From TrEMBL, chain A:
<comment type="subunit">
    <text>The complex is composed of six subunits: RnfA, RnfB, RnfC, RnfD, RnfE and RnfG.</text>
</comment>
<keyword id="KW-0813">Transport</keyword>
<dbReference type="GO" id="GO:0022900">
    <property type="term" value="P:electron transport chain"/>
</dbReference>
<keyword id="KW-0249">Electron transport</keyword>
<comment type="similarity">
    <text>Belongs to the NqrDE/RnfAE family.</text>
</comment>
<keyword id="KW-1133">Transmembrane helix</keyword>
<feature type="transmembrane region" description="Helical">
    <location>
        <begin position="40"/>
        <end position="61"/>
    </location>
</feature>
<dbReference type="GO" id="GO:0012505">
    <property type="term" value="C:endomembrane system"/>
</dbReference>
<dbReference type="InterPro" id="IPR003667">
    <property type="entry name" value="NqrDE/RnfAE"/>
</dbReference>
From TrEMBL, chain B:
<keyword id="KW-1003">Cell membrane</keyword>
<dbReference type="InterPro" id="IPR011293">
    <property type="entry name" value="Ion_transpt_RnfA/RsxA"/>
</dbReference>
<keyword id="KW-1133">Transmembrane helix</keyword>
<dbReference type="GO" id="GO:0005886">
    <property type="term" value="C:plasma membrane"/>
</dbReference>
<keyword id="KW-0812">Transmembrane</keyword>
<keyword id="KW-0472">Membrane</keyword>
<keyword id="KW-0813">Transport</keyword>
<dbReference type="GO" id="GO:0022900">
    <property type="term" value="P:electron transport chain"/>
</dbReference>
<feature type="transmembrane region" description="Helical">
    <location>
        <begin position="38"/>
        <end position="59"/>
    </location>
</feature>
Amino acid sequence: MAKTLTQEFTKGLWQEIPPFRLVLGLCPALGVTTTVQNGVGMGLATTFVLVCANLLVSVLRKVIPAKVRIACFIVVIATFVTLVGMLMQAFTYPLYGMLGIFIPLIVVNCIVLGRAEAFAYKNPVLPSIADGLGIGLGFTMALGALGAVREVIGTGCFTVPFGPTLTILSADWYTPFAFMVQAPGAFIGLGLMLCLMNLVPSK
Amino acid sequence: MGDIIVLIISCIFVNNILLAQFLGNCPFLGTSKKLETALGMAMAVIFVLVMAGAITWIVQYFILDKFKLEYLQTIAFILVIASLVQFVEMFLKKSIPGLYAGLGIFLPLITTNCAVFGVCIINMKEGYGFLETLVSSFAYAAGFGLALILFAGVRERIILARVPKPLQDTSIGLITAGVLALAFMGFKGMV
């Protein structure tokens, strides 16, 4: 039991890491990753929704009729998204302001609905939580990594999540390549990272 | 009148929903391999988005605001959109089978298209009136269609090119989208 739980957890961190291996949830991955902190914050908010939604869907899986399951999933997910929005408004207001519209948009993030449908609806509670946590943290890592690449190249700085901003590339000799923090940089950065991931063989 | 034209141009080009606001990227990459499917998706989005924009506006101002239920916005909107899509699908199947066959599988996909949900929320955030909501919904959807169809055209050509193996499929797709976004950045400062 313990072993399978670990497996469910770790598969999200590498084998099925979104948005690279599972090409889902691209909108937040592209939209908020201008800094590391935004990426990580978005990832953690999504993780919270994923874990809670997986938990509730898994608990209710025998009660929810198959015909209306998608509608039920959406209501469950929307509830937790509203919750996370309120929590962030209360405790991390500046971050909430930066992420803006992408917080309510977690509700239409295909990763969350996809995990509810593909995993939580068919599995017991504990593996579902492990699955949600793994996929969520994988997503957080990916967003943090993309945010780091874009921020360091685009501004020469690195924001430690919820901490100070460090200067990595000094302005004395490095001209920030602002292209990377603008819209096209998101697409090209993610495309190149996907290419790097493809170079590493998956097991 | 001038305001409306400015709104249309800013929604289609300057704040293009796909390439400047990053909404609706999953169908953008998923349905853009062929020009035909891109066209179907674009039509379906225009159709649903205008209706969703109108209905969510009514829900927001006549139900949520009136009864001080603003915090239910996310849940209410997503349910409205999901049931609207279902309803449109049933209606088209019965009344306009030709259009239904054309839009086909793209209709149910729209429920999880964040462009639809996103535009509804943007409309409320900007505090648009009813007419402005209709116009901006249509213009955002048209911008979605424009970017999607342009991108599909480029992608059809890429199939013929020899792309290095690790870059194939989604990877080269994203980079192409980046180049397209660069082109759209040229519209910045127009409005």
